[in-house]
Design a protein that fits this description.
heterodimer; A: mainly beta; six-stranded mixed beta sheet; 11 strands; globular; B: mainly beta; seven-stranded mixed beta sheet; four-stranded antiparallel beta sheet
Chain lengths: 114, 114
């Protein structure tokens, strides 16, 4: 039962263009969402997060959008850079949110071409 | 500040054996979580420890167990290994495990079961 789904296993974009990574979830009780980035042979690193009380959060080139009615979130990277090539995981925190448990999607491999 | 350290980096075992993986969190972090990463499945939550107590557990069989020591270091054990246990095992730490804290991941232990 995959509660967090990233339906696109891979995405390829040109340097300088926008990258849009999508994530869907099934549990309306999720109250906090995060994106992590993973390079080969390294552990995931935190990228950006959003609380369910917001619909948008920005951090530099990265923006996360949350559409609660559609149970959908997306990560926008503008402009995309070759160094952004990595696997991107979205994750959700189930209630109660005071524990270290996150539910991750399967990941999307982003390739940014120079 | 040293990051999360996982040992060993690689491990090869045969079916039926048991294995112990080790994780040293960032100094001062008291919450340690473990995740299993397999191709196509993303990261799946195994368990979380806080102050030497298991606070949350994922949907894995009892062959998977863990513990945390008074210095916050953690170990996970898998008994009676199966071929399907081949995966990257990731450990993550945070201050107290609140959802709005960043999780800091180690580079993982790649386990191969033959």
């Amino acid at each position: 039962d995959q509660q967090v789904k990233q339906n696109s296993p891979s995405l390829s974009v040109q340097e300088g263009r926008i990258s849009i990574l999508n994530c869907d979830y099934t549990n309306s009780m999720f109250d906090y969402f995060l994106w992590y980035k993973k390079y080969p042979a390294e552990g995931p690193t935190f990228l950006i997060s959003i609380s369910s009380i917001k619909d948008k959060n920005e951090d530099g080139r990265f923006t996360v959008f949350l559409n609660k009615s559609a149970k959908h979130l997306s990560l926008h990277i503008v402009p995309s850079q070759p160094g952004d090539s990595a696997v991107y995981f979205c994750a959700a925190s189930p209630m109660p949110s005071n524990t270290g448990k996150l539910i991750f999607g399967q990941g999307t491999t982003l390739q940014v071409k120079p | 500040k040293a990051g999360v350290t996982q040992t060993p980096r690689y491990l090869i075992k045969t079916r039926g054996q048991q294995v112990t993986l080790s994780c040293s969190p960032i100094s001062g972090h008291r919450s340690v979580s473990w995740y299993q990463q397999t191709p196509g499945q993303g990261l799946q939550f195994l368990f979380e420890y806080f102050s030497e107590t298991q606070r949350n557990k994922g949907n894995f069989p009892g062959r998977f167990s863990g513990r945390q020591f008074s210095n916050s270091r953690s170990e996970m054990n898998v008994s009676t290994l199966e071929l399907g246990d081949s995966a990257l095992y990731l450990c993550a730490s945070s201050l107290v495990g609140r959802v709005n804290e960043k999780l800091f991941f180690g580079s993982g232990t790649q386990l191969s079961v033959l």
